[in-house]
Structure formats: structure tokens, C-alpha cells
Amino acid sequence: MLAIEKLEVSYGQSKVIHDLNFTVGEQEILAIMGRNGMGKTTLLKSLIGILPSKSGSIKLDDKEIANLPAHERVRSGIAYVPQGRMIFPTLTVTENIMTGARKGVSSEAWDEIYSVFPVLRDMRHRKGGNLSGGQQQQLAIARALVSNPKVLVLDEPTEGIQPSIIKDIARALKEIRQLRKLAIVVSEQVVSFMMEVCDRALVIERGRFIHEAPRENLDADKVRALLFV
Which domain holds residue 21? Predict the structure, then answer.
């Protein structure tokens, strides 16, 4: 569903992402693990088009999108949930979700969102800024889903969220994958969340992948050691 070849991303003269190659299969959940400053967010922003890539190919469902602006990548089928959620605090839950839709939200889509995130139905008239961090994260994911993506990209969705809600988000991502038949790319530092949700994991360090394993062969202790060197 997503294929990246020889991707390089720079900030000015400083190269941050170095010649990366990886794929994401249909309905696969891929976790990209790494410490702060190792290139996770830069990589995800380059996929969505917020940061331009210096070179390389990004193909979404066999369509080259590396030269497209961010809004056209969204139209092509990639959606992004940024680190820190970035919901609109003065808009209601319903209004926040609708900002992600191009042509309105169908009743079926609302039902699906509320089935995955029932708390959003209960709080649909509440201002986004009055929600807890975990509720805001669920809202940000729901907003991304109404663009009907083929690939959902999430940057550290567990940041600042209490453990019980982290479990809810893991459950929701697996449910979304099943309902929508989409692929998910998630950057993360919480190993327990990664072990719960992913089909495969990559560990990034200084813009290069240093470890890769499918879920059945993942060694959580080894990943923790790589993250806390």
C-alpha cells in the first residue's frame, strides 16, 4: 500500500533521513520506534508532505506522491494525526471531526466513528479544548478517518496519555484497521503499546533503520535496549 525507496530528507544542509527503504502492506500496522531526535517525526512529515524530501520515491497504492503537496496527498489517500494532536480547542467535537471531511460526513461514517470512539458521541457538543488528552487523541484520529484514507499515519499517539487510555487507543487502531481495511503507520516510544498493536516494527536511529522484526519475532527487551542506549 505504501512503498518508500531511497528517501532522503534534510533541514537546510543537515541531512536527517538517510536513504530509507521500506514498505507497508495492505491492512498492515507498522510501528516506527525511536528515541526523541532520531528522525521519527521528520520521516512521517515527509510522507504526508509537510516536509519536502530531498530525493527518493514515495508511492501510495502504486501512485507516486513524493512531488505532490500535502493536500493532494490527502486526496490520494494518506491521513496524518500529528504529535500533540492539534485539535481545534474552540470548536466542538462534531465541528473538529467535520474539518477533516471534504464533502461532509455520512450518517454511516458517524456511526462507525462513534462505535470505535463512544466517548466522542457523549461529548459531541463539548469544546475540543475541554477534553482530556486521551479524548483529544481519539478526536484527532476520528478527524483523520473522515477523509477516507488508505494509509493512516500517527505520530506518537500515546504521548501524555494515561495507561488505561493507551490500551483503548491500541484497541481502536486494530478495530479501525478491520473496519476500514487500511494500513497504519505509527511512530512510538512506548514498547508495550507497540507490542500490543503492530504487525511489524522498525527501529530508527539518526535517520537510519537499525532493527526490523515482525510481531511474532519481536524481542521487547531488545527494542527497549535500543531505545534507551
Answer: 2-227
152, β-bridge pairs = 79, 184
**Contact call for residues 36 and 42 (beta carbons, < 8 A):** no
pLDDT at 104 over 80: yes
- pLDDT band at residue 34 under the 50/70/90 scheme: very high
Q: Mean pLDDT across the stretch 180-189?
A: 96
CA 180/CA 199 separation, integer angstroms = 17
What's the total number of domains in the chain?
1
Take residue 55 and report the three cell numbers written for it: 530525493
CATH number (domain holding residue 118): 3.40.50.300
What average pLDDT score do residues 171-190 get? 95
Strand runs labelled E in the chain: 2-11, 14-24, 29-33, 55-60, 63-64, 78-81, 151-155, 183-188, 200-205, 208-214
